[in-house]
Amino acid sequence: MAKDSGVLRGRPWVVACFLLPALLLLGALVVYPIVFSLYRSMFDASGDGFVGFDNYQSLFTDPAIRKALQNNLIWLAVAPAVATGLGLIFAVLTERIRWATAFKLLIFMPMAISMLAAGIIFRLVYEADPDRGVANAVVTSVHDSFSEGAPWPGAHPRPDDGLTEQPDGSIVRDEAVSTGDSVLLPLVRVAPQDVADAEPARAAEPVADAVTGTVWLDFSQGGGGEPGVIDDGEKALAGVTVEAWVDGRSVASAQTAEDGTFSLPAEADGAELRLAASNFAASYNGVDWLGPTLVTPAIIGSYVWMWAGFAMVLIAAGLAGVPREILEAARVDGANEWQVFRRVTVPLLAPVLGVVMVTLMINVLKVFDLVLIIAPGSVQPDANVLALQLYTVSFGAGADQGLGSAIAIFLLLLVIPVMIVNVRRLRKEAQR
Predict the structure, then answer these.
(1) Three-state secondary structure call for residue 111
(2) DSSP assignment of 202-215, as one string?
(3) DSSP string of 368-421?
(4) Of 131, 288, 394, 431, which has the highest C-beta tally within 10 A?
(5) How many domains does the chain have?
(6) Same domain, 115 and 237
(7) 261-264 and 211-217 strand pairing
(8) Same domain for 50 and 115?
(9) Same domain, 275 and 294
(10) pLDDT tens digits for range 169-190
(11) pLDDT digit string (tens) for 398-415?
């Protein structure tokens, strides 16, 4: 070994020959783009006018760039910590289950998918329509398990049927009722398939000491029929709550039967009939995942789905090197599993956890394609990040590559401190 080292010292050109290809590639792919971006950031959009540090001043005055920086800070604070935490939990779990290999494969599999493909997948997952979006399908299923929806969402009266829709969504009969009346309350705008299994509507029989009536879908398949009259084949609207209001308060209520009829007691004499707004409230369609409020957390969720497997594999490798004697000694001394995990396992894995965290922090500062694919165009300004803003500014409508170069240099400056911390950590590990 000493002889080989002497040969290399005596022939530095040999060392240069070996390093030259790597240095050329490093200069062409790393050093030159950085130097040129720094130079270009000093000029305006045309590249002819020198503007000095004006482009860098825009980084802190342009609302779009400030929003992108704010979102990057959210990414930096949330995504690496969540992915590392889940990776730690998964790595510990793989030591406790028999099918550990299959579990690792399942969790790590998203890493085999490109960011573009993952973005398309989660764009579909977050679809607002529960019939298409998996996330809202799950949310609505859970919601509907604990809450009954409105029986006839979206139903409305015709303007000339003696019924008026109120601002709160309830429907009020224009004329007061008296005992012995049999009233007709026709509604429309109910999809025919929703009443396919409903019974035919029937006119309620008048009762001397009660107010009766019928609520039905005033629509005949194929057209025809007379508005405001129960024609053959028209369907009843069952389960509709009908209330009698006197002096601003409800004095009686009833629900329509399967044939659409209802009966209110004598207290309804002289009352105003009201169909409660709860009968017609729009059905629960889940969460607006891609709206301005939740779009950034939703995209972070897709990122964690991809990178938790990466964290798990690295942490599991570190966990395999933890001496089992230390863990067993802690258990013998009376520590429970949570104490062993918190006071022994996590401290021993601290170097590995640090490497994973730093790697993911560098990665999230460069996140681009997930935001571009998942966020709809209308909310992209709310989900914007620096890398996407760099692309938009440089190659979008304005094509201001001077400002884009300034954003690129700013991103580089954000990454450098994290890289320095990572290098120092690696040096300390090498000296141990």
Answers:
(1) helix
(2) -PPPP-TTSEEEEE
(3) -HHHHHHS-GGGHHHH--HHHHHHHHHHSSS--HHHHHHHHHHHHHHHHHHHHH
(4) 394
(5) 2
(6) no
(7) antiparallel
(8) yes
(9) no
(10) 899 999 999 999 999 999 998 8
(11) 788 899 899 999 988 888
